[in-house]
Amino acid sequence: MASRAAIYRGMMWKGRSWAIGSRSMSSWWSNVEPAPKDPILGVTEAYLADPSPHKVNVGVGAYRDDNGKPVVLECVREAERRIAGNLNMEYLPMGGSIKMIEESLKLAYGEDSEFIKDKRIAAVQSLSGTGACRLFADFQKRFLPDSQIYIPLPTWANHHNIWRDARVPQQTFRYYHPESRGLDFASLMEDFKNAPNGSFFLLHACAHNPTGVDPSEEQWREISHLFKVKNHFPFFDMAYQGFASGDPERDAKAIRIFLEDGHLIGCAQSYAKNMGLYGQRVGCLSLLCEDEMQAVAVKSQLQQIARPMYSNPPLHGAHIVSIILSDPDLKSLWLKEVKVMADRIIGMRKALRENLEKLGSPLSWEHITNQIGMFCYSGMTPDQVDRLTNEFHIYMTRNGRISMAGVTTGNVAYLANAIHEVTKST
Ligand SMILES: Cc1ncc(COP(=O)(O)O)c(C=O)c1O
């Protein structure tokens, strides 16, 4: 073996890098360019760097109370009190917390779902909603390598990254109608019809991000019927169950319609928003299968995909969720708290619209109250958003999406005035 001195003698300084013979030592990553900023998370970084006392962050999709402060739900605090000192820190099973999964399936598929009783659902705990989507995308690629995914236009930007990194080719389908700021139902149905039979579709179960525009119950029934005819696969991303109407049962309506119609669905659930467990990364991926045997096989394969990535999912958030959902008192407290969050957002929609109308805005702002969930797709252009940021210290994504969760009694008049200023000459 060469001595250390001999190794140093062989080293030469060549400009930016050390080299031993031809092998470079400190330039391993010289070809790495900085990644582009994430369009959503970058907004928060810019907001934090702004010293203005008037600054407003309506960029990131995280709930704030009426003082603009992050919220920890009382049911979560109570679950944590019960956990404190009473748990070991062992690994969860590879598929995650059995109890948390059981409770999650009841929320998505219904308390008395026959599919749960018949053990037809393959489900694993996931790293929140993002992890559920990614696990599904990898599963899709592994077992149906020639399939594609149809994604709504527009959608949460990360959907594109998730299926891109899983190497599943993407198509889009029309969803939003810019003139009415509502659903483009006719075009959406046309795109579903024109897609090859047996295509995979990503559907937002409720509170579509970024538009806040959901199909009505009747429209979901028509979509479900068409999916049956075309034998399409519906993958529901349900990141906001409870946030749209304030009632998680009501927000699961689209999924229930598809289940009634006999579809085999996929579903990504997240507890980031509806329990405020953003950083705990707790969610669930489920796939309804033909029978129990298939469900066992599918679950084992999902676990096998997870194993080399993160081995098994984290413990703490899963305990919080299972304690809350399995205790009737804590569950009813949670339901009240979800409703409080949803109602505050609905109230802020009304206030923002009223303020704009009071200012004499020549534009229609009806869509602010027609849209639901966390976001308002305002229709503002990237230039108008830039003006909001540069002149008024208001931060949001350049697609004009306002996170209504960041609007408060204290800032709504300021926000309305700024929006009026940048839009009045359009
Ligand atoms: C539509 C949609 N899906 C999934 C997610 C995933 O969130 P998380 O991974 O925090 O659960 C989000 C979060 O913003 C979302 O808006």
Question: Quick summary of this structure?
Answer:
With 426 residues, the chain is an alpha/beta fold. It has 17 helices and 16 strands.
Explain the overall architecture.
The chain is of the alpha/beta class and 426 residues long. Helix content is 45%, strand content 15%. The chain contains 17 helices and 16 strands. It has helices at residues 4-9, 41-49, 74-83, 98-109, 114-117, 128-143, 157-165, 185-194, 217-230, 248-251, 253-260, 292-310, 316-326, 328-358, 366-370, 382-392, 412-423, and strands at residues 11-14, 17-20, 23-24, 56-57, 121-126, 149-153, 170-174, 176-177, 182-183, 200-204, 233-238, 266-270, 283-288, 375-377, 394-395, 401-403. The strands form five sheets. A seven-stranded mixed beta sheet has the order 5-13-12-11-10-6-7. Strand 8 (176-177) and strand 9 form a beta hairpin. The radius of gyration is 24 Å and the shape is globular. Mean pLDDT is 93; it is low at 6-10 and 12-17. Bound molecules: pyridoxal-5'-phosphate.
User: How far is it from the N-terminal to the C-terminal residue, by CA?
Assistant: 75 Å
Name of the top-level CATH class of the largest domain = Alpha Beta
Overall pLDDT level:
93
Number of spatially distinct domains: 2
Strands of the largest sheet, in order across it? 5-13-12-11-10-6-7
Q: Which percent band covers the strand fraction?
A: 5-15%
CATH topology descriptor of the largest domain: Aspartate Aminotransferase, domain 2
The total strand number stands at: 16
Bound molecules: pyridoxal-5'-phosphate
Query: What's the helical proportion of residues?
Result: 40-55%
Rg from C-alpha positions? 24 Å
What is the CATH superfamily label of the largest domain? Answer: Type I PLP-dependent aspartate aminotransferase-like (Major domain)
